[in-house]
């Protein structure tokens, strides 16, 4: 690993802030980063993986230290997610329950969203939002791989999202854009854009995001604020802002690892010791900060909900959006394919809808006025009297043991399929089948004779 060269201003700042503890902090920044991964409890037999599970991440369910490869079947079919161990704790600390409505406001690339989906267990709703279009694309792919059906993926500005979902969510996770000091050890490039001015700029942006986030939270709802920086201006001082300006109360979380928040850095705020600081010398992972809050009073700046709903209704009516008819014949085509596979208990075809010939089961019925990348579970696409199932459906069906499956025989066949090539089978099957490797479903194929036509999406091919 190349030597980490820190800005003098950064060194001076943390020598002053940490005093006698500064030496251990700077020494730890020279150590090798730790790597970890989470297993996906939504998948069938999810603990049957080829990775070493002997070193769990303390206090995080289904999480282990170790390195995984994006070429392994476990990654391709969503059995695992590679994530910095410290970054696993915010979703754990939020403590969501099945059935809740949850927002991951700054969601890409998807580590926290997939953890929240695991906790929801196919019940309730997750809205995973990312303002960057390119990062939102990666977010969508990672959520698709996870195989959940109860997620709305959006690419929207926070203020626009707040107009759409006033006082709607039971829990919100804001992993805010920050100065990235906690990533210095892992990503030396992060050092090049650091300055104290940038820290203050990030702090200002964090407040703007939180001003909108509070509008979307129910009174009594939970907000988890996190960053990957050490800067008090972006951590404890933001906690003070949430309490003093936005009506929040700091509360304890179930996360009891790492170090406590520092009272002197957060206006000696009551409960700041409940916040957790992940320093490199804690030997857990990279730099991270988290704090959990309860909204004790509703935002004074939000419109009345009934008024807002009426305005939304008028906008939709004025827009005159044409509703696509999902015909009985089309429904039968889809049902015929689905009948060949074992469906999770959460599956409800009665809610199925059609848009531009794409058939899906929406997680949110009305998505007007927001940019949506994926809404719930896409089943597939109708093409001239036939129905072609989607990659997301294949990943979703991986939650259950299936019979209509072609099992690839070796690594060479698996790699051929990832390349987009056909493979052969001796199974007496015809039509669409699920394709798996090492017992793990990852795609659809279509059997004609002894050939399995490749339906692994072109955008994912290696």
Q: Specify the CATH homologous superfamily of the domain at 85-295.
A: Vaccinia Virus protein VP39
Rg, Cα atoms, Å: 24 Å
**Can you count the beta strands?**
22
Q: Strand content of the residues, in percent?
A: 15-25%
CATH A-level architecture of the domain at 85-295? 3-Layer(aba) Sandwich
Which range best describes the helical content: under 10%, 10-25%, 25-40%, 40-55%, 55-70% or over 70%?
25-40%
Overall mean confidence score, pLDDT: 94
What form results from the Cα inertia axes?
Answer: globular
Total helical segments: 13
CATH topology of the domain at 85-295: the name is Rossmann fold
N-C termini distance: 28 Å
Largest sheet: number of strands, sense, barrel closure = 10 strands, mixed
Counting helices, strands and paired strands, the structural category is alpha+beta
Name of the level-1 CATH class of the domain at 85-295: Alpha Beta
Q: Which regions contain 5 or more consecutive residues with pLDDT less than 50? A: 300-305
């Amino acid at each position: 690993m190349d030597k980490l060269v820190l800005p003098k201003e950064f060194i001076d700042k943390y020598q002053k802030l940490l005093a006698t503890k500064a030496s251990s902090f700077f020494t730890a920044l020279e150590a090798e980063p730790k790597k970890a991964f989470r297993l996906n409890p939504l998948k069938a037999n999810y603990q049957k993986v080829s990775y070493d599970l002997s070193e769990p991440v303390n206090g995080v369910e289904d999480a282990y230290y170790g390195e995984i490869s994006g070429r392994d079947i476990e990654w391709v079919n969503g059995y695992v997610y590679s994530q910095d161990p410290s970054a696993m704790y915010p979703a754990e600390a939020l403590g969501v329950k099945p059935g809740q409505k949850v927002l991951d406001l700054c969601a890409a690339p998807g580590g926290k969203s997939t953890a929240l989906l695991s906790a929801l267990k196919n019940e309730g709703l997750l809205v995973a939002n990312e303002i960057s279009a390119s990062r939102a694309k990666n977010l969508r792919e990672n959520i698709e791989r996870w195989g959940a059906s109860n997620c709305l993926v959006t690419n929207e500005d926070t203020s626009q999202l707040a107009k759409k979902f006033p006082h709607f969510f039971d829990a919100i996770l804001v992993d805010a854009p920050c100065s990235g000091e906690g990533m210095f050890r892992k990503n030396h490039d992060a050092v090049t854009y650091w300055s104290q001015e940038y820290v203050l700029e990030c702090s200002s942006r964090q407040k703007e995001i939180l001003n909108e986030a509070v509008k979307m939270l129910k009174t009594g709802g939970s907000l988890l604020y996190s960053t990957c920086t050490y800067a008090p201006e972006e951590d404890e001082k933001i906690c003070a802002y949430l309490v003093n300006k936005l009506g929040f109360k700091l509360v304890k979380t179930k996360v009891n690892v790492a170090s406590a928040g520092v009272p002197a850095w957060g206006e000696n705020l009551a409960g700041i010791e409940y916040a957790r600081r992940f320093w490199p010398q804690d030997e857990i992972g990279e730099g991270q900060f988290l704090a959990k809050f309860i909204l004790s009073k509703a935002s004074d700046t939000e419109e009345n909900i009934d008024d807002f709903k009426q305005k939304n209704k008028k906008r939709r009516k004025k827009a005159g959006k044409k509703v696509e008819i999902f015909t009985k014949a089309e429904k039968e085509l889809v049902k015929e394919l689905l009948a060949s596979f074992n469906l999770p208990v959460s599956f409800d075809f009665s809610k199925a809808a059609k848009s531009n010939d794409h058939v899906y089961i929406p997680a949110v019925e009305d998505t007007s006025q927001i940019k949506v990348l994926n809404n719930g579970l896409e089943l597939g696409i109708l093409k001239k009297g036939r129905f072609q199932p989607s990659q997301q459906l294949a990943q979703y069906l991986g939650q259950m043991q299936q019979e209509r499956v072609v099992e690839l025989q070796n690594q060479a066949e698996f790699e051929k399929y990832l390349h987009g090539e056909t493979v052969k089978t001796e199974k007496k099957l015809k039509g669409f089948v699920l394709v798996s490797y090492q017992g793990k479903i990852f795609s659809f194929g279509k059997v004609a004779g002894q050939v399995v036509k490749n339906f692994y999406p072109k955008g994912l091919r290696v």
